[in-house]
Design brief:
Length: about 120
């Protein structure tokens, strides 16, 4: 579970994701948290270089899935992407609007070889 461990929710994204996964029946010992996955690029790079992953499954929103899969492939991971049915909410609209800018940032991160923190 990769995300901002110090986000505005006060709980941390990986912790919230862990709780949801455990509620769905995923065994606690099958979950690894990465609180320094501050953006998608960092999550993919850290999965490989810090956590030693070779293969990942990206569970995200539809608008984000192709960029996330692409970034993980660039990081040298075998990757599958999955997303739930689309629901029209404020976050979905905002996510779709910001995705072109995020895609440009992703290209810049890959081309520069940026090293994520941690």
């Amino acid at each position: 579970m990769s995300g901002d461990g110090d986000d505005s929710s006060g709980y941390g994204e990986p912790t919230v994701m862990r709780e949801i996964a455990e509620d769905m029946g995923v065994p606690a010992d099958a979950i690894v948290e990465d609180p320094l996955g501050l953006d998608t690029y960092a999550s993919c790079e850290r999965a490989r270089s810090v956590l030693g992953a070779e293969s990942v499954i990206i569970a995200t929103q539809e608008f984000h899935a192709s960029r996330a899969v692409w970034l993980c492939e660039r990081a040298g991971l075998t990757v599958q992407g999955a997303y739930p049915p689309v629901t029209l909410r404020k976050g979905t609209v905002i996510g779709n609007l910001r995705e072109p800018i995020a895609a440009v940032k992703a290209w810049m991160d890959v081309l520069s070889g940026r090293q994520p923190q941690g």
